[in-house]
């Protein structure tokens, strides 16, 4: 049942190429330059005309929502807000007729996320779901939605559900970009081609970086704290990297937007705290490199994820992990992979039960 692996979490990390191919099957037609989401067809007119999309979710699914915000705003130019479902339900949220609430949930059973669906429906607002578990309560109660088709996720730490959620949100963003006339046919096709390549590129990361990541984990396993930094669409990846580490290895970790470092977290830096950067060569790369220099100048030890072939960090970072180049909007799908593997190995080396971390449940059906 664990596919020959020791843990479900590892199996689920390794099956991401397949899970993401399934999340795109019959939907992404890169050769034709079209994207079809059957689950949204009936509500497309309303969704397309939305004044605002409010994404509600918890934990890792909330991190996927933050990536979704970036993707929907970038490709479809619809304003998006991302809320913790647990906060949304208690703040008497302002919902107007042309708003759309979109919830994201792997299990489809998370109590706070379900409450957000009910709140949206009570306010007479369209409620959509991006859900993995077929026939789950959230899938049944939402007006429409898109399934992940990622297959069951058993390990308590969410891995393939996160990347499948981002893949589905990317498809929704591209579809809306097209129907709203924001994206040209050429841009749409180019992005669909980039998305279609992701499963193969994840396989490359899993194969080519595995040994290096295990070696880094051996050094990191004794750390008591870790800081994860990223910018733009990779900021949520920093949050997700930190969550993965803390929940299964019990090492305290925090994620921040890289530029926020000097507003507080920089005080923590010493040679005992690993600082993990997502530093791909995109718009803010030079600024991220300055942040890396600031950490190094304070004796911090840097682990950097960058795109293949970038030798610019070799003299600064202790370790450089390479992921293939993709459209910068889809980078989270590749940059998160080393963080998942790293957390897994660190936790195993510390003797932790990675599939059943203490105090955590796979689906949180109470608030
Ligand atoms: C983290 C994790 C949790 C869940 C959260 C939401 O690895 O698994 O943070 O992401 O409890 O669960 P779902 O997506 O089932 O609503």
UniProtKB/TrEMBL annotation:
UniProt-recorded Gene Ontology molecular function terms: carbohydrate derivative binding; glutamine-fructose-6-phosphate transaminase (isomerizing) activity
Q: Write the Enzyme Commission number(s) for this entry.
A: 2.6.1.16
Q: Could you confirm whether the keyword Ion transport appears in this record?
A: no
Single biological process term from Gene Ontology:
UDP-N-acetylglucosamine metabolic process
Where does the record place the catalytic residues?
362 (for fru-6p isomerization activity)
* Reaction(s) catalysed by this chain's protein: D-fructose 6-phosphate + L-glutamine = D-glucosamine 6-phosphate + L-glutamate
UniProt KW keywords: Aminotransferase, Cytoplasm, Glutamine amidotransferase, Repeat, Transferase
Query: So which domain of life are we looking at?
Result: Bacteria
Q: Where do the SIS domain residues begin and end? A: 43-182, 216-357
Say where the protein is mainly found: cytoplasm
Q: Where in the cell is it found?
A: Cytoplasm
Transmembrane as UniProt keyword: no
Q: What GO cellular component is one of the record's annotations?
A: cytosol
What does the subunit comment say? Homodimer.
Q: What does this protein do?
A: Catalyzes the first step in hexosamine metabolism, converting fructose-6P into glucosamine-6P using glutamine as a nitrogen source.
Please report the name of this protein according to its UniProt entry: Glutamine--fructose-6-phosphate aminotransferase [isomerizing]
**Per the UniProt entry, what species is this protein from, by scientific name?**
Rubricoccus marinus
